[in-house]
Write a structure and sequence with these properties.
By secondary structure, this protein is mainly alpha-helical. The chain contains eight helices and two strands. It is found in: Membrane.
């Protein structure tokens, strides 16, 4: 008996991802993922990084959240959206999501060769506190969390909302782990002072 891959694809890629207008949000995030992965080859030489087992503290909620974000669980359970925004509402959500993604890209481009998908110290690593990093310490997470929460709420499924929350918690946990790591590697006087001066994820709030 041959395996029908098309059936698996229809389950993993269906529901809100293929029904207009929420399909627009799916296309935006697919475009983001493709560009983000494509740019992952542009980064500096790693000097030191957090061990793999430790990283599961933030990887696990992000993974589970990502699975919930797909239409798979909602389709399996037969759950329907809690609300339907319509074309205008989804268009507004799309604009806000793109704004969040753009802020995240600004952070990544400004970080340059010091960016990494994992918690690392790069060669010649130093504290970056200009551009978006003068607004928040983790602009990439700020932008992605904002965009994911907007998208999750706009879709209106319990699974997408819960998925967005789990992804946000995972990113927050990763941010905290990064700060402990960088404070040790770059020095409390340098990175610690930065943490006391600039908010972590939410702009215009009290640092720490």
């Amino acid at each position: 008996m041959s395996f029908d891959f098309s059936k698996l694809l229809s389950v993993a890629w269906g529901g809100w991802t293929t029904a207009w207008p929420t399909e627009l949000l799916a296309l935006i995030w697919l475009g983001f993922l493709a560009s983000w992965v494509g740019a992952s080859f542009w980064q500096g030489q790693t000097k030191k990084q957090v061990m793999t087992l430790e990283s599961q503290r933030y990887r696990l909620p992000i993974l589970i959240g990502g699975i919930l974000y797909t239409p798979f669980i909602a389709e399996l359970m037969g759950w329907k959206p809690l609300w339907v925004l319509g074309n205008t509402g989804i268009t507004i959500a799309a604009i806000l999501s793109v704004a969040g993604i753009a802020f995240a890209w600004w952070g990544r481009l400004h970080l340059g060769k010091f960016w990494s998908n994992t918690i690392t110290q790069k060669e010649d690593h130093r504290v970056i506190d200009t551009g978006p990093y003068g607004i928040v310490r983790h602009p990439i997470y700020t932008g992605l969390i904002f965009g994911m929460l907007v998208t999750g709420v706009a879709i209106g499924l319990v699974t997408t909302i819960l998925g967005a929350i789990l992804i946000s918690l995972g990113m927050w946990q990763k941010g905290r782990m990064e700060e402990v790591f960088l404070s040790k590697e770059l020095g409390e006087d340098a990175y610690g002072a930065y943490c006391r001066r600039v908010p972590m994820i939410i702009p215009f709030t009290s640092p720490r």
